[in-house]
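Quick one, tokens below:
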């Protein structure tokens, strides 16, 4: 095979794998006519086929509690605007407005995508939003864009660069219950780029320092990859919040203090 053809053969599958997000997850049966609740999960860059299995297991458990679970593979390679347009189509095509109460769980890239969309999209049944936040992982797009430009482009396209240069777009002005679940452990990627991550300044784990008004906030002893594969462990707190507007009494609300990534690395 000629060198240029070999390059194309190698790059195209990589682009396809990156542009095809993890699997769509929806209820196994159509919603009944009586009122039900739905949770729309908005994954981010870490979502793939393996993570889809974990969400399918949670979907079965949620259904027994009377909650329909949807996981929207909305991220595109062509930027945040196109990702928002794809998410808006998903919401309309799945007819999420038919539920009496709709809730959103947004991973990091999910928040960057959905918050501006909610500012202009009428969803009268939207009741609550839970955000996955990570003072560690939210620096990953900036690091990738600055240090790994070619690899980041091949894998994620324009979207990761859009997020890297866009400040967190807080959701405000809607009568919703809002919660934050904050990861307290770094991923291997962040650990391998500890100096770059530290260079952006101290890590703000205090809930009030995350730039998002909220009604409740708790901490998870997980990193970003853990949250995808161990979402079943998080689901009870998600379920508690969508039902009561608060996490359970067992939730960890103790703020990590004086966190220094290089010390975590050691």
């Amino acid at each position: 095979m000629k060198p240029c053809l070999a390059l194309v053969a190698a790059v195209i599958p990589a682009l396809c794998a990156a542009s095809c997000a993890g699997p769509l997850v929806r209820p196994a049966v159509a919603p009944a006519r009586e009122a039900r609740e739905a949770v729309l999960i908005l994954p981010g860059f870490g979502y793939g086929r393996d993570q889809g299995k974990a969400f399918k297991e949670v979907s079965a458990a949620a259904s027994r509690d009377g909650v329909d679970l949807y996981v929207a593979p909305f991220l595109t390679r062509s930027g945040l605007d196109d990702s928002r347009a794809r998410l808006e189509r998903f919401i309309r095509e799945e007819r999420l407005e038919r539920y009496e109460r709709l809730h959103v769980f947004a991973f990091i890239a999910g928040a960057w995508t959905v918050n501006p969309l909610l500012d202009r999209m009428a969803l009268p049944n939207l009741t609550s939003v839970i955000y996955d936040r990570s003072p560690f992982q939210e620096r990953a797009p900036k690091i990738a864009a600055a240090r790994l430009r070619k690899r980041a482009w091949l894998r994620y396209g324009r979207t990761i660069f859009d997020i890297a240069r866009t400040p967190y777009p807080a959701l405000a002005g809607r009568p919703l219950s809002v919660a934050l679940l904050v990861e307290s452990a770094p991923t291997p990627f962040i650990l391998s780029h500890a100096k770059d991550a530290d260079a952006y300044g101290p890590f703000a784990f205090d809930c009030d320092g995350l730039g998002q008004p909220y009604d409740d906030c708790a901490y998870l002893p997980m990193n970003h990859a853990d949250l995808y594969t161990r979402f079943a462990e998080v689901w009870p707190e998600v379920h508690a919040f969508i039902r009561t507007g608060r996490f359970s009494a067992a939730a960890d609300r103790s703020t990590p203090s004086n966190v220094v990534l290089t010390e975590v690395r050691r």
